Amino acid sequence: MKDRFILLTGCSGGGKSTLLEALAARGFATVPEPGRRIVAEEMAGDGRALPWVDMTAFAGRAVAMARQDLDAARHLEGPVFFDRGLIDAAVALEHAGGPPLRETLGAAQVYAQEVLVVPPWPEIFAGDGERKHGFDAAEQEHWRIVEALGALGQTVREVPRVSVAERVAFVLATCGAG
Asked: Where's the NadR/Ttd14 AAA domain (predicted)?
């Protein structure tokens, strides 16, 4: 089952969501980034768990949402591509002073062994109302995730800085879905 769950992670603003939209347009099951969904919910609500207000609360919600996403994805057929996920949320929670990564994740490996990582790409990075941090913070987050993936024994496969169509082809070839 876990081999069907393909995690796409890496630098914030590196083109993950655009790549997932292109995969969805080709008919693949995709799961949107928990963080973006939480920010939208929080901005429509009381805003207490926004990452720039309370990172621990935000990351805790991201862990819970990522677990719900994994449960829901078990009912989907074929490969399922995740825009960030449980590992990202656990890394953020640990960085915010929460429990260690392995304590949050448990022993189970929930994604495919090979994780697709988008590198820092300053030419396409853009902040917005939901992404208030700058490129330096995004790059630091990227390296925390890459380090965590290594500590977890995941294989990191960097997605090249090429056009969206070329990235889709790379992802599908890498996952054997193309």
From this structure: 6-167
Q: Answer with the residue of higher pLDDT: 13 or 154.
A: 154
What average pLDDT does the segment 24-46 reach?
90
Residue 130's domain spans which residues?
2-175
User: What is residue 4's DSSP assignment?
Assistant: G
Q: What proportions of the chain, in percent to the nearest 5, are helix, strand and coil? A: 50, 10, 40
Question: Each residue of 61-72: b (16+ CB within 10 Å) or e?
Answer: bbbebbbebbee
- Asked if 51 and 35 touch (Cβ cutoff 8 Å), the reply is yes
3-state DSSP assignment of residue 9: strand
In angstroms, the CA 87 to CA 178 distance is: 25
C-beta of residue 20 within 8 angstroms of C-beta of residue 83 = yes
Q: Map residue 110 onto helix, strand or coil.
A: coil
Which pTM value belongs to this model? Answer: 0.90
Report DSSP letters for 112-172, one per residue.
-SEEEEEPP-TTT----SS--S-HHHHHHHHHHHHHHHHHTTPEEEEPPSS-HHHHHHHHH
